[in-house]
Specification:
142 residues, two-stranded antiparallel ribbon, alpha+beta, 3 helices
Length: 142
């Protein structure tokens, strides 16, 4: 839940483009004709207040499997979606879980005092990098 919420707030890729393989009817009645290239803002979808209440607030319980989800499965697309999604997304999620678990077993991770600023490039980065303080856990605490 924590990893998914982090990916919602800070998706690795900000936008994707797709060519419409058929006419797409929008909710307001307008039509995107077949053959048009559309740019989809993953960042915009993940921060849409009509889908995500308080979209700038970090709330991992948005992804609690016990709560029925009332949103579209396409409301959360950190690795894209459909036939052109990331083929490594299952591996990436597994790798993040293992790396996070092994880190938290050995260290206390604290944020730096400075608030990071988003720096959108081909992928989303933090301006000046993300700085964390890492303190080893004592053997007694383990």
């Amino acid at each position: 839940m924590c990893i998914k919420e982090s990916l919602r707030l800070h998706p690795p890729v900000l936008l994707i483009s797709r060519c419409c393989s058929q006419d797409v009817m929008l909710p307001d009645g307008r039509v995107i004709p077949k053959g048009n290239i559309c740019v989809i803002s993953i960042f915009g979808v993940h921060h849409n207040p009509s889908v995500w209440p308080d979209p700038e607030v970090y709330n991992p319980f948005r992804f609690d499997p016990e709560n029925p989800q009332k949103r579209s499965p396409l409301a959360f697309i950190p690795f894209s979606a459909g036939p052109r999604n990331c083929i490594g997304q299952t591996f990436a999620m597994s790798e993040m879980k293992v790396a996070l678990a092994l880190t938290l077993l050995r260290f206390r991770v604290l944020p730096d005092d400075k608030e990071p600023r988003r720096k959108p490039e081909l992928i989303l980065r933090a301006e000046g990098g993300l700085w964390l303080r890492v303190e080893p856990l004592s053997r007694v605490a383990q």
